[in-house]
Amino acid sequence: MDYFLTDEQEMIKEIAAKIAREKIKPVRAELDEKEEFPHEIMKVLGQSDLFGLYIPEKYGGMGGGVLENCLAVEELARGCIAVTTSFAASGLGAYPILVAGSEAQKEKYLPEIASGAKLAAFGLTEANAGSDAGGIQSTARKDGDHYVLNGTKQWITNGGEAEIYTVIAITDRTKGARGASAFIVEKGDPGFSFGKKEKKMGLRASSTRELLFNDCRIPADRLISREGMGFIITMKTFDLSRPGIGALGVGLSQGALDIAVEYARKRVQFGKPIISFQAVQHMLADMATETEAARALVYAAARYIDSGAKEVSKIAAMSKLFPTDVAMRVTTNAVQVLGGYGYMREYPVEKLMRDAKILQIYEGTNQIQRNIIGQELNKEYGRFKETFF
Amino acid sequence: MHVVVCIKQVPDSKNVRIDPETNTLVRQGVQSIVNPHDWYAVEAALKFRDANGGKVTAITMGPPQAEEALREVLALGVDDAALLTDRAFAGADTWATSLTLGRAVAKLAPVDLVICGKQAIDGDTAQVGPELAAHLDLPYVTYVRRLELVQGSRLRAERITDLGYEVVETGLPVVVTVVREIGDPRMPGLKHKMRSRKQQIPVINAAALGLKPEETGLQGSFTKVVRVFAPPPRSNREMLNGAVENQVEQLLKRLREARVPGL
Q1: What average pLDDT does range A249-258 have in this prediction?
Q2: Where are the domains positioned within chain A?
Q3: What is the pLDDT of residue B24?
């Protein structure tokens, strides 16, 4: 398929594909088995300028947008989505600074993130605040020219590995959703530490840890934007990051499809390659069709967001929802096509299936994405004066 | 520091066939790649520059399409490139090739260090590096796995030998050939890759190097490929079985019987 990418976008794909092929694929099984964070690969991604794709040139980035980031994520995800999640989560940590940070904050933090010298992370989720972000209990109290943070963030991607954390905490509980604020916390800040590293079903090369704030004192200028802007910044961040999760799904699906088709062409049963049987052909056809549809949706959403469109929550949610549901189906069917071999850890597809599940859960469960799409539809149609009957 | 790295575009060895009639490589439809050993030379050059400052210039002798090989290494962060191309260069053996490369290195002066891969996968001679040094009247160190600048103006190199490794120190300028252990080539960077597409690559012909037609290409070559053939498979193979100790004893016995020196 030709998606009319620019020369620069094609170059991004080429570089990311080369890294996936030569640096990620050969080690993905071992990283998964050992639950080991891919430090070396993060270095390579930094040297290749991929961390700064969406960051403006004046902050050391490449000046691209959501699409450029999605193209890199998709190609890297063909190698391993645990590695790619570690890469993409740095963007998730950077977006709040990019969309709402002060000039001084941007100048201080974005160049280090763009070069890959430092990883970033985003801390929203807590034990009692998952889909219901309103349940956040972590607090930030102003104390002179400092804020003092208390509470525990849970399941934070890049926890412990990142140097820069953007964290949501309540500054005024009486104001509800308008009482949350976003802060930049640095590794090494007094009172900031990490909890246990989680053991996961998939995505095992990525680091998932608790962030512990125990009277953590940070300078007041670490507040992003104003007090009370925490949820708005979070929503804007997700509008930019969700197509990237879709791109993870597209890359993962493509990687699973590649293996399934190759296997089906070689595997002989009843005297014929199994791809000659309609039962298998139709499975592969559905996998390929859904993967391509997911890709088209991600690219379209990314381009729409990059155009500067104002209302993007619905398309951003769609671009996360559909490709990740597709990735679950495609990887499950890839295991089915490979049969017993697919279920064995000696072959790569069982990992792809284990990894796929997280895509339907993190960065807003797919149920939450449907809520967003439904609510946006309600708003959108409420504005129409005409009837469609 | 100015480092010149010599690279060669070769047919992708994974797809090479030999025409049984003519005994020559079938080049049609075979993709060209940068000689795999030359990637290590490029990495060595970049590492040396990163550690000591200066710049890296890549040169290659080949047909006009060899420019693609230069653009590939520019994408890794090589600063400059020059393409040596001329119809007169065609059919060069290692002598004519190294003479041509030597003239180009001289033209790029001042040069502190010239790095080549240990050999090319098409010819496999490993001669061009040392011959280049001879033409330039420079010292050379082959099969280098580690390079280090000492006292600001001397080079310390570790070279792999059959018995271990040697540490060699030499003044500059010097020609070295490197092996895989020098380090895997880095991945291309987006900024470098974007620059590599636009960068002007000067084209240098025989006249610009002050070379007469009889000094280059087939005419300037002392050797000629008469025949290319696959060596016949060796016969009389025997597998030793049993416990390792047993195998060693059997092997020793046979070597003694064969009067291998030192046993």
Answers
A1: 98
A2: 7-119, 121-230, 232-381
A3: 64
